[in-house]
Design brief:
CATH topology of one domain in chain A: Growth Hormone, Chain: A
Distance between the termini of chain A: 67 Å
Distance between the termini of chain B: 95 Å
Largest sheet of chain B: 6 strands, mixed
Keywords (chain B): Cell membrane, Membrane, Nitrate assimilation, Signal, Transmembrane, Transmembrane helix
CATH class of one domain in chain A: Mainly Alpha
Structural class of chain B: alpha+beta
CATH architecture of one domain in chain B: Sandwich
Shape of chain A: globular
Low-confidence stretches of chain A: 1-50, 529-550
Low-confidence stretches of chain B: none
Strand content of chain A: under 5%
Number of helices of chain A: 25
Structural class of chain A: mainly alpha
Mean pLDDT of chain A: 79
Strand order of the largest sheet of chain A: 1-2
CATH class of one domain in chain B: Mainly Beta
Order of helices and strands of chain A: HHHHHHHHHHHHHHHHHHHEEHHHHHH
Organism (chain B): Trapa natans (Water chestnut)
GO molecular function, one term (chain B): nitrate transmembrane transporter activity
Largest sheet of chain A: 2 strands, antiparallel
Shape of chain B: elongated
Function (chain B): Involved in nitrate transport.
Protein name (chain B): High-affinity nitrate transporter
Oligomer: heterodimer
Number of helices of chain B: 3
């Protein structure tokens, strides 16, 4: 079997996917460098000046985002998190491009392949929620490294799979590693301040998701090299799986050795020193699941990220069957969908931050609804177009809007809860996978709908589910169709401190939320910043916060 | 009305052009060759070891002639039971899109008499585990199929044989997988213990 890629095609692809994001990032970094200090919240007077190499806020979160730096701890955390998440995506979607070989070796039927595809995304549904809680309790560094090292065996065992059942099992357990998404978002939300958190989340999430596209190029190449060295086809694919497994293991080591949970140190050390009170699992969980906004975001994320996972699993086969393409051509087109994550998801995060500067949280919600709905419309069109060229064009446009919506979602998530940030991130992330499972079960299993009809129906479902964003309302900032609750003069502190009981407040557990509330005042948008009295910014809270030891 | 007629006409022309353009339909071919192969019905062959001997000859009772046969292609084809629920092995009438016979055993110039009308082939290691039959296509000078013969009947139900494929697994690979997995889990345990020790050392226990 010949696996030849034209170098011309590959270099064009690389050019397109690298030129745009670097120009975007250059513009963003330049803007931020000039205006960073005036736009961000005021620095606390209590910080020793030389401790961090980047400007930080009162929680020691970075207020700037410098892509090309690996400065400890903020930017280093960013690079560690996106690379480890990327490796998990590479492993989870390493099988689809090699399916034509694997299905002959293991004697799989189309049903077996479909079931394995569903299994690969269903494991992470609960793993993401569990991961959210683990991050809240143990910190993202240990939580993510543990998950990655515990799922690496599943990838190694893919090499020795010998039947449809064992294949389904290894794909199922490998898919658990997609829960590192939650630790990535949690880590970024802990390291970066409100004005850049959308960008940080979008970039780390997007560049991680990139793995789903990169693997469609990497795995066939690794397979071809091993086969050309002399291995038989049915052995070469098995050896090829060692590569993503080793990569995954190495990134976990890097996270443990070089990473740090919070700007001030690691969870365990901070717990022991008393700087960070150890929180109660049941309370954290309760405050997460009782916040209705988390559930709405879980639903809508299921129809941007869930759709993205579904398309990752079915799009190569769709182009292969409908347009009678060669396997590696279908693979390259499939890779394009995932590779758009290089810029489209970060762009969503960036857009969220840019809109929030002027319009605050209401702007973030409106932009999310608009972008995701346009994605749904493009999905409907994708199922209806007849020619190859227009299908590719619509698919690329669809991928950009769908992935930007993912980035925009995580521009909203950090503000839903402070105490239960991990649980909310986990619910949203888990909701993404539920969307993938449900969509594949309803529209892409068996022969009830042709793939084209399935894609159109999926687009209609995206549009309907996205409407639920209209229901999100923050009392201190408002919602899509309503302003902030005017009668109570509800502030950010009131919202975030409502998660702590007065007993806990007496013991000072809520100080982290207090700092966050102050830093999140950008949720009001530009119009309201001028009306915010100086007293709210330099409030009497600061002197007591300066004495951090409890 | 006018546009619809134009569209229909162009579709018809396109279909005819397809047929002329080398898109041969299997249903248009006659079974002009007699093909015999060494595997008996139900025999299981081991890939990489066992051999298949194929012999083909022109069917004398057929009315046509074999003068335009230039080459023959001997192919290993999937039986219907191995095509079930596997869309990538689907039988399609248009031979360009047909996926029933993806494995080429040999292609050689046409000859109806011994010794050039037979071939012995060792089942290669990339043949998957499935049920098969053998088909031979006769091809003319413009590379279009003009006749065929096969070892089974029209419905592909008789005289089928199986191939038992290699798994591709090796003991060394099994051992490597287990060792690497154990290493991942144990190193995680090691890190946890190291962290606990370091945390205990740096901050002495509170009274």
């Amino acid at each position: 079997m010949k696996d030849a890629y034209t170098t011309k095609g590959k270099s064009t692809l690389v050019l397109c996917h690298f030129f745009l994001p670097f120009s975007l990032e250059f513009v963003w970094c330049t803007l931020n460098f000039k205006h960073g200090h005036t736009m961000g919240p005021p620095d606390s007077v209590a910080i020793p000046p030389a401790k961090f190499s980047m400007p930080v806020d009162s929680e020691h979160k970075a207020t700037e985002f410098r892509l090309f730096s690996i400065a400890k701890p903020h930017m280093r955390a960013f690079h560690l998190s996106w690379i480890s998440f990327f490796s998990c995506f590479v492993s989870s979607f390493a099988a689809p491009p090699l399916i034509p070989i694997i299905r002959d070796d293991l004697n799989l039927t189309a049903t077996d392949i479909g079931n394995a595809g569903i299994a690969s995304v269903s494991g992470a549904v609960f793993a993401r929620v569990a991961m959210g809680t683990a991050c809240d309790l143990f910190g993202p560094r240990l939580a993510s490294a543990s998950l990655i090292l515990l799922t690496a065996p599943a990838v190694y065992f893919t090499s020795i799979a010998s039947s449809p059942i064992s294949f389904l099992l290894v794909r199922f357990f490998t898919g658990f590693s997609l829960a590192t998404f939650v630790s990535t978002q949690f880590w970024m939300s802990s390291m970066f301040s409100a004005n850049v958190v959308g960008t940080a989340n979008g970039l780390s999430g997007g560049w991680g998701n990139l793995g789903g596209g990169a693997t469609q190029l990497i795995m066939p190449l690794v397979f071809a090299v091993i086969r050309d060295v002399g291995a038989v086809k049915f052995t070469a694919w098995r050896i090829a799986f060692i590569i993503p497994a080793l990569f995954q293991t190495m990134t976990a080591f890097a996270v443990i050795l070089f990473g740090q949970d919070l700007p001030d140190g690691n969870f365990q050390k901070l717990h022991k020193d008393g700087d960070k009170p150890k929180d109660d699992f049941s309370k954290v969980f309760y405050h997460g699941v009782s916040n209705y906004r988390g559930w709405i975001l879980a639903l809508t994320y299921g129809y941007c990220f869930g759709v993205e996972l579904t398309v990752d699993n079915i799009i190569a086969e769709y182009f292969y069957d409908r347009f009678d393409l060669k396997l590696h051509t279908a693979g390259i087109i499939a890779a394009t969908f995932g590779l758009a994550n290089l810029f489209s998801r970060p762009f969503g995060g960036l857009l969220s931050d840019v809109v929030a500067k002027r319009f605050g949280m209401r702007g973030r919600l409106w932009t999310l609804w608009t972008v995701q709905t346009i994605g749904g419309i493009l999905c409907v069109i994708l199922g209806r177009v007849e020619s190859l060229g227009s299908s590719i064009a619509v698919m690329v446009a669809f991928s950009i809007f769908c992935q930007a919506a993912c980035g925009l979602t995580f521009g909203v998530v950090p503000f839903v809860s402070r105490r239960s940030l991990g649980v909310i991130s986990g619910m949203t992330g888990g909701g993404g996978n539920v969307g993938a499972v449900v969509t594949q079960l309803i529209f892409f299993k068996g022969s009830k709908y042709s793939k084209e009809t399935g894609i159109t129906l999926m687009g209609i479902m995206i549009i309907c589910c996205t409407l639920s964003i209209c229901l999100i309302h923050f009392p201190q900032w408002g919602g899509m169709f309503s302003g902030p609750t005017s009668n109570k003069d509800f502030s950010e502190e009131d919202y975030y401190l409502s998660e702590w009981s007065s007993h806990e407040k007496d013991r000072g557990f809520h100080h982290g939320s207090l700092k966050f509330a102050d830093n999140s005042r950008s949720g009001r948008g530009k119009r309201s910043v001028a009306s915010t009295t100086p007293a709210a910014c330099t409030s009497p809270i600061h002197p007591s916060l300066a004495s951090d030891s409890l | 009305m006018g546009t619809r007629a134009v569209i229909l006409a162009s579709l018809l022309v396109a279909c005819l052009a397809q047929a002329c353009d080398g898109n041969v339909l299997f249903s248009s071919l006659s079974r002009t060759l007699v093909v015999e192969a060494s595997p008996t019905a139900g025999q299981v062959l081991k890939s990489g070891e066992d051999k298949i001997k194929v012999t083909w000859s022109f069917n004398g009772t057929h009315s046509g002639k074999d003068t335009d046969y230039k080459t023959v292609k001997v192919k290993l084809c999937y039986a219907p039971v191995s095509q079930k629920d596997r869309g990538w092995r689907k039988t399609v009438d248009n031979l360009k899109k047909d996926k029933t016979c993806p494995h080429l055993i040999v292609a050689r110039p046409y000859s109806s008499s011994a010794p050039n009308n037979s071939f012995e082939w060792t089942v290669t290691k990339d043949i998957p585990k499935a049920t098969y039959f053998i088909r031979v296509y006769a091809i003319n000078a413009s590379a279009n199929e003009v006749g065929y013969g096969q070892t089974t009947n029209k419905n592909k139900t008789t005289n089928l044989f199986e191939v038992d494929a290699i798994t591709g697994r090796h003991t060394s690979l099994d051992i490597a997988s287990v060792c690497f997995s154990a290493f991942s889990v144990l190193s995680l345990a090691g890190f946890f213990i190291g962290e606990k020790r370091r945390a205990k050392k740096s901050s002495p226990p509170h009274m």
